[in-house]
Design brief:
The chain is an alpha+beta fold. It is built from ten helices and five strands, in the order E-H-H-H-E-E-H-H-H-H-H-E-E-H-H. Among the domains are: 133 residues, no CATH class; 73 residues, no CATH class. 37% of the residues lie in helices and 8% in strands. The longest helix has 19 residues. The N terminus is likely disordered.
Length: 344
C-alpha cells in the first residue's frame, strides 16, 4: 500500500558528467510509453525513495546501476539504504532487473540490465513487456563470435627421398658423429571439460563456493548433466551463486545439493529438415530479484522480488507502519498541546 507523503522531498543532485557508464549492453534501459517528466513525479513515494528515483530518472541509458556507484553519487545514503530504496522502487513498479544471454557458441555470455520506468507499472504490464523483449531478443540475429587468432605452427621440412648413389665411395667420410636429438617434450594433459571449468570458476565468482580440484572432479558428472540439457557455463554459475546464505559451511555439499535441486528441464528438440544448418541459440531473458539477485521468470517474481524477499519486505513494512492505537495516541497528544497553548 502506497502512502502519500506531503513533506517536500530533497532535490536529487545533478548527474555528474563523469558518472561511469556500464559496458555496452549493460546498465540502465528506459521502458517505452513513459509520461513526460514533471515536478509531481514520484510524489507518492517516501523521501528517500523520491530522492533516489529522481537521480536514477535523469541518468542516461547505459549508465551503471550498481548500488556501489549510486552510493558514491548520493552521499546522503549508504549502500544498504540505496539497496533498500531500489527494492522499494521495484515494488512500486518503477524498475525491474533482468539478465539476458547474448552471443553464440562458446562466446555466449550474460548481460545484466535494469529497466526503468518513470511511470509506475503493475506486474501485468512488466510481464507483457519483458515477454515482448524476450521475443525481440530471440528474433534478433545472433552476434558473431569474436575472431580467435590461432598461432601458426612451423612444420619440419619433409626429408628428401632416398636416391641410389652413382658410385660407391672409396672410404667412409671421417665426419664427427651428429649430436643426439633433444628429447621429445612431454605430452600436455588432457583438456578439462566445460563442466569442470564452470565448477572451478565458482570460487572466483563467490569465495563461499570455492571448490578444490578433487571437488570439481567429483561434481563434474552432475554439472555435465546441466550442459546436456542445453544450458551454458554462465547460466550454471549464475544459478549456483544466486541467493547464497551468509555462510556456507561445506561448499562441496552445498553445490551438490543445488546441482540436484536446480537442474533445468529437458529441452524438446524440434523437427529439423534435412539440409538445414544448426539453429540459432535462443536468447533467454530472465528477470532477477531486485534484492537477492535470484533469477526467474517475470510471473514468478511479482513486484520484482522472489518469495522470501517479498515476505521479508512485507514484514518490515508492517513492523515500521504505525498501528491505529499509536495514531490515536499521537492525535490525543497533539490535541493536549493545542489546549495548553490556548490556556492563559
Amino acid at each position: 500500500m502506497v502512502i502519500q507523503h506531503c513533506s517536500s522531498a530533497l532535490s536529487a543532485p545533478a548527474v555528474s558528467a563523469a558518472y561511469p557508464m556500464a559496458k555496452p549492453g549493460y546498465g540502465k534501459r528506459s521502458a517505452p510509453g513513459q509520461q513526460a517528466r514533471s515536478r509531481d513525479d514520484f510524489a507518492l513515494l517516501p523521501t528517500r525513495e523520491r530522492y533516489v528515483a529522481g537521480f536514477v530518472d535523469h541518468l542516461p541509458d547505459g549508465a551503471s546501476m550498481s548500488v556501489k556507484q549510486l552510493a558514491k553519487q548520493l552521499p546522503l545514503y549508504g549502500q544498504q539504504a540505496i539497496s533498500t530504496a531500489l527494492k522499494a522502487l521495484s515494488v512500486a513498479g518503477h524498475l525491474r532487473r533482468v539478465r539476458c544471454s547474448v552471443g553464440a557458441g562458446d562466446e555466449t555470455r550474460w548481460v545484466f540490465r535494469t529497466f526503468w520506468s518513470r511511470t509506475a507499472r503493475d506486474n501485468e504490464w512488466w510481464t507483457t513487456y519483458l515477454a515482448t523483449e524476450t521475443a525481440t531478443q530471440t528474433a534478433a540475429p545472433a552476434e558473431p563470435p569474436a575472431p580467435v587468432s590461432v598461432p601458426l605452427q612451423r612444420t619440419p621440412p619433409e626429408a628428401a627421398p632416398d636416391t641410389a648413389p652413382t658410385a660407391a665411395p672409396a672410404a667412409p667420410p671421417t665426419t664427427p658423429a651428429a649430436p643426439a636429438a633433444p628429447p621429445a617434450p612431454a605430452a600436455r594433459p588432457a583438456a578439462f571439460s566445460l563442466a569442470y571449468l564452470a565448477l572451478a570458476e565458482l570460487g572466483r565468482k563467490d569465495i563461499r563456493l570455492a571448490l578444490s580440484a578433487d571437488d570439481c572432479a567429483a561434481l563434474e558428472p552432475q554439472a555435465a548433466a546441466w550442459f546436456d540439457r542445453g544450458v551454458d557455463a554462465d547460466y550454471l554459475i549464475a544459478a549456483l551463486t544466486a541467493g547464497l546464505p551468509a555462510q556456507v559451511d561445506c561448499p562441496p555439499r552445498f553445490v551438490r545439493r543445488r546441482l540436484a535441486d536446480k537442474i533445468p528441464p529437458h529441452r524438446s528438440a524440434g523437427p529439423s529438415s534435412p539440409g538445414t544448418s544448426t539453429p540459432a541459440p535462443v536468447r533467454r531473458l530472465l528477470m532477477e530479484c531486485t534484492d537477492c539477485g535470484r533469477p526467474g521468470q517475470p510471473e514468478a517474481l511479482p513486484d520484482g522480488l522472489c518469495r522470501p524477499c517479498r515476505v521479508a519486505h512485507t514484514e518490515s513494512q508492517q513492523a515500521t507502519s504505525p498501528g491505529p492505537a499509536e495514531i490515536a495516541a499521537v492525535k490525543a497528544h497533539m490535541a493536549n498541546l493545542r489546549d495548553l497553548l490556548k490556556a492563559p
